Each structure stands twice: as C-alpha cells, then as structure tokens.
Amino acid sequence: MDFSGWVNQSITWVGQYPELLAITIFLVSFLESLVIIGIFIPGVVLLFGLAALCGGGALSLESTLFAAFLGAVAGDGLSFYVGRRYSTQTQSIWPLTRYPELIIQSERFFKQHGGKSVVIGRFVGPLRCFLPLAVGALGMPPSRFIAFNVASAIAWAPWYILPGFLVGAAIDIETPLPQHFYPVLGSLLLIIVLTAGLFTQLHWHLRPSGSFYRWISNRFETSGFAHRLWDNLYSLRNGEREYPISSALLFTGGVFGFAFVTLLTLYLPSVQQLNLTVAGVLTDIHIPLLDMIFVGLTLLGNPGFLYLFFGWFVTLLVVRQRFHLAFLCILGGLSAHALTSFLKAVLQIQRPDSPGIPDSFAYPSGHTSGAILVYGLITAFIARERLPHHRWGIYVTGGIWVLLIACSRLYLQVHWLSDIVGGTLLGLTLCGLIRTLQSPYDRQPVWTDKWIAVFGFGAAILVISYLLLTFPAAIARFQLFSG
Q1: Alpha helix locations (H) across 1-141?
Q2: CA–CA dist 402, 19 (Å, integer)
Q3: What's the helix, strand, coil split of the chain in %, to 5?
Q4: pLDDT reading at 141 higher than 60
Q5: DSSP of 121-160, one letter per residue?
Q6: pLDDT grade, residue 148 (50/70/90)?
Q7: pLDDT digits (tens, 9 = 90+) for 364-403
Q8: How far is residue 108's CA from residue 131's CA, in Å, rounded to a whole number?
Q9: What is the rounded CA–CA span in Å between residue 27 and residue 74?
Q10: Cα 284 from Cα 251, distance rounded (Å)
C-alpha cells in the first residue's frame, strides 16, 4: 500500500475518534519537550504524520495547533519545574548525570541570550528539552518563564504542524493526490533548508570575530585603494568598528544570483515545467483558515501598505535626525519599485491564469522584492543594536516573515515559483546595497528599546487598520470562499 492509501485508511478510522488524535498530538508534543525524554522522541516525524491525519479531515487545524501548543507548554513547564526544584543538584542526580554536557551548554546558552533563549532554544536540536531545566535551575522567575514559554509555543506549533497538515489536506479521500506532489514538496523543503543553512553559516563566519570576516578584512588592509575605500565604510557601536562585509557580499551574490535565475527563467524550458508542476500541486490545496492567513499575508506585502509601513519607519529616522539613513531607505524603496516595474515591462513573462491576479507581468515578484527590502532593512536596523552573536534570532524571525509573504503569492497562484525566487534575489540585492551605503552613517545607536516600542505601536495600528479596510475586498477578489 502506498503512503496516500495508508493515510486515507487511517483518516477513515481516526475520524471516528478525533479526541484520541488530539490527545496523541498533545502527548507527542509534551514528551518531545520533556527533559531527557525529548532526546529520544522523533517529534518532527511523529507530528508530521499525525498532522497529515488531521489535515485529511480527522481534526480541524485550530484543534491540531491547540493540542500541539498545549503539549509543548506543558513539557517545557515540567522541565522548568524539575530545574527549579533540584536547582544545584541537576548535574548530580540520576538520570541527569548522564547528560552533563547538554546541561552545561544549556546554561551557557541561557547566560548568553537571557529570556530569549527559551524562545530560540525550542528550535535548537538537543538543547530544546534541556533549556527549560537550565532556566529553572538558574532562577528565572516562573511568571517570566511562562511568558517566554507561551510565546515560543505559539511560534513552534505552526512550524511543526502546518507541513503535515497541508499534506493531509492534499491526500483527500475523494481527491487524488496531485501528480509530482512529493517531489515538489521535497524539493521546496530542501531548498528552504539549504538556504537557511547557508545563511546561518555565512552569518556565523561573517560576524566580526568570524574567520571569513577577518580574512576579508586582512585582504582589504593590504590593498591601497581598497583600504582607503574600506576605511570609510565602517559603522560604530561602543567604540567598536564593524565593516559591512556581509551586506556587500549579499549585494554581490544577489546580483549574480538574480542574473543567473533570470537567464534560466528565460531560456530553460524545464523552469517553466517546474512552475506548472508547482502550480498544479497547489491548485487543489485550499483550506479556509489558510486561505484567510495567506490573503492577510499577501496584503501586508502590497505596495500601498509597504509605503505606509516603511514611511512610518523613515519618519522615525527623521525624528531621530538620521537624515542620511532616511534618504537611503527612501532611495532603496523607490529603486525596488522602479526596477521591478522596468524588469516586468522588458521581460514580459505572463502570470498564472488565476482569480484576482493583477494586470502587470509576473517576473520578478514585486511583492516579494518589496517585502524583502522593507522588512529586511527594518530587521537589519534592529539587529544592528545587538551584539553580533545575539542577532541571528532577529534575522531568523525576519526571514520567516518574508518567506511567508512570498509563499502567499504561490498559494494564491498569482505568481510562478521562478517569480518568487527572482523577487527574493532582487530584494536581497537591494537590501545588501542599501545597508552597505548606510554603514558610514550608522555610528550612533538608532533603535533603542524605547524607539523600537514606539515603532512597534505605530506598526501594529497600521497593520490592524489596513487589514480591516482591505481584507473583505481581498477575499472576494481571490474568490476563495464561494460555496
């Protein structure tokens, strides 16, 4: 029996006992988060399979996410209690004595990252089930831990549940699985994992104390012209210089990557075949809750909203009298819009034939390039105020956000996969260029906690107001809920 047949039979049986399925998801999430036991629980695989059963109709998405959320909160909560209860004895009582390295690493991780370690640690391999123990042993107040625990579980549950749920939704009893579904899904996941791994490694080696950063700096030091140019490009915090090596490499790599993908899109027929295959797979995958989520996400990538959102950010830069930084942000936004419009007009690649599509051409995706530029620059500004080894969590959060906006264009079938890839590379190119140009004007703290709070408050008002005004019309335009 193939996988889809097994899922269909399982859905038929489990559909009679949805409470049992919810309890099972809770237990897997609970055990996966529990100290020591979590090491031996293949949580990713088990939750993927269980979520696939739910996606076939055995359990609603809301109930599935809630069960996983509760299990994760309970597992981390019990681990925290064990750490708080035994405190200084955590490395001297069995069976914790068998894992001294993981306990030491978790304590070090908490001392480096503070409360954020509870959120970050849930996604960090073997440490995920030991961090709550270490946090409890080192004396974090329970109320503070609960806040971080709940926040991390809210982010964790969709990350683990949605992939399997979408697969289950595709394997409907009455609807055959789209052709090439698994190769396409596997390829997309592989691309995401490899890209995330590449950026993680680059970020690690390009921090000021990283080997690659030092190697490039030494090369520039030995070149006369390059040294004079380079010596004026540093930004400054607490007397420490930081050169925009990662931004310059992002710009350079983005230029070559965008040119390469554009040539493939224009002259390689298999790219169009891949586009059609991905579109065909997504045609039958529509879940009411996901429809609403992705319509909302795509609205937050609309040019009109991005102008408002970025305008608020730039206004605060002007209030802070950071005029050069504000001007370069405006230049970046206008350049993204102009370049995208120009390339669409020149390349003239048609969009998919779907409801609600704009009249413009497809390649590259303006939503994606604009979102990456706007949210990418904001993310970079906020991350710059943190120590280098504390920034990656901020970049990961920003990266996931723009990835979801890009995926919304695929899900709603208003862009091809190649449009999204091209838009991503164009946005990263411009983001790298603008951050490189901004570096010599970024020598005093810009975004203290106070100003981040002011920006966040205004941003929340903009998001809520824009969605309230535009969401009903967007739902009707995409024709997702008829019947």
Answers
A1: 3-14, 18-33, 37-40, 43-53, 61-86, 100-113, 116-121, 131-137
A2: 35
A3: 75, 0, 20
A4: yes
A5: HTTSGGGGGTHHHHHHHTT--HHHHHHHHHHHHHHHHHHH
A6: confident
A7: 888 899 999 999 999 888 887 776 666 777 787 788 888 8
A8: 10
A9: 10
A10: 37
Per-residue pLDDT at 409: 86
Residue whose tokens read 């990283």: 210
Q: Which parts of 87-115 fold into alpha helices (H)?
A: 100-113
Neighbours of 188 (CB within 10 A): 16
Residue 98 CB contacts under 8 Å (≥ 6 apart), including other chains: none
Query: How many Cβ atoms are within 10 Å of 208's Cβ, its own excluded?
Result: 15
Chain-centroid distance of CA 481 in Å reads: 27
- Specify the amino acid at residue 9: Q
Nearest to 416 by CA among 184, 161, 179, 176: 184
State the Cα–Cα distance between residues 186 and 347, nearest whole angstrom.
30
Whose structure tokens read 């203290």?
448
Q: Are 393 and 450 in contact (CB under 8 A)?
A: no
The answer to whether residues 437 and 325 touch, using CB atoms and an 8 Å cutoff, is no
**Nearest in space to 306 (alpha carbons), one of 368, 258, 247:** 368
Q: Average model confidence (pLDDT) for the chain? A: 76
3-state secondary structure of 236: strand
> Distance of CA 167 to CAs 66, 181, 297, Å?
19, 9, 21
Say if residues 129 and 146 touch (Cβ distance below 8 Å): no
| Bridge partners, residue 223, by sequence | none
Q: Which of 415, 159, 478 is nearest to 278 (CA)?
A: 415
pLDDT band with cut points at 50, 70 and 90 for residue 482: very low
Amino acid 437: pLDDT: 85
Residue type, 433: L
Instruction: Decide if 434 contacts 339 (C-beta within 8 A).
Output: no
Residue with tokens 């405006």: 330
**Rounded to 5 degrees, what are φ and ψ at 235?**
-100, 170
Q: Which of 344, 331, 338 is nearest to 431 (CA)?
A: 331
How far apart (Å, rounded) are the C-alpha atoms in residues 133 and 75? 11
Length of the chain: 483
Give the other-Cβ count within 10 Å of 244's Cβ.
21
Other Cβ atoms within 10 Å of 462 Cβ, number? 16
Kindly report the backbone phi and psi dihedral angles of residue 233, in degrees, each rounded to the nearest multiple of 5, phi listed first.
-100, 0
Closest to 419 in 3D by CA, of 330, 343, 483, 359: 343
Phi, psi of 134 (to 5 degrees): -65, -40
Closest CA to 422 of 357, 476, 346, 482: 346
Any bridge partners for residue 240, and if so which?
237
pLDDT at position 116 is 65
